[in-house]
Amino acid sequence: MDFSINKMKFHLSFLFPALIGFFVISDHIGLVPILLVSVAIHELAHICILYLLKNKIVKISFTALGISIKADTYFKKWWYEIILHFAGPFANLTLGIIFYLNGNHIIFALVNIVMGLFNLLPIGNLDGGNILKVLLRVYFFEKQDKIKQIINYIICIPMLLIGIIVFVEQKGNFTLIFLAISMIRTLET
């Protein structure tokens, strides 16, 4: 479903609320609200950097693979793009460390730390993958696609295997399998 609010375009895939609903139903310890707040903080950090760098946001999409922000980006320097992609994980890691050191809301702290570190993985369309794309474009222009693909598979294949082992050991916990398959599906984009 596509809609606009104040000239800002949004896309909401049916699978996004369906997946959230599934996680809410299967959430026995109350992590979903913490995850949603952490994701919102992460994406707001990206949006703030886009506005600071005077880039116009064209569309925000909510899909089963996450939230993506499409912007008319023009960066005078390649490292502006790295700052943009690093903003989300930096916000999560900073909040996580502050809350952890403060001793309050340890689960919120750990969720943010894990989210920040996970998003720094240099695979797919994660922030780390986008940072890797920029660095490869700058330093290895002719071989960038091949190098990125090799790195993606080096990380995703073991992640899938670990997910299968966790699934078998915990009799049905498919979280890592879902994450690994999601990352593998985004490798070609």
What share of the residues lie within helices? 55-70%
Tell me the radius of gyration: 17 Å
Mean pLDDT: 82
Structural class determined from secondary elements? alpha+beta
First CA to last CA: what distance?
A: 22 Å
In the predicted model, the low-confidence regions spanning at least 5 consecutive residues are: none
Biggest sheet: strands, sense, closure? 4 strands, mixed
- How many β-strands, per DSSP? 4
Strand-and-helix sequence, N→C? EEHHEEHHHHH
In spatial order, strands of the major sheet run 1-2-3-4
The number of helical runs is 7
Shape: globular
Strand content: 5-15%
Structural key phrases:
single chain; 189 residues; alpha+beta; 4 strands
General description of the model:
The protein is an alpha+beta fold and 189 residues long. Helices cover 65% and strands 13% of the residues. It contains seven helices and four strands; from the N terminus they run ββααββααααα. A four-stranded mixed sheet has the order 1-2-3-4. The relative contact order is 0.09.
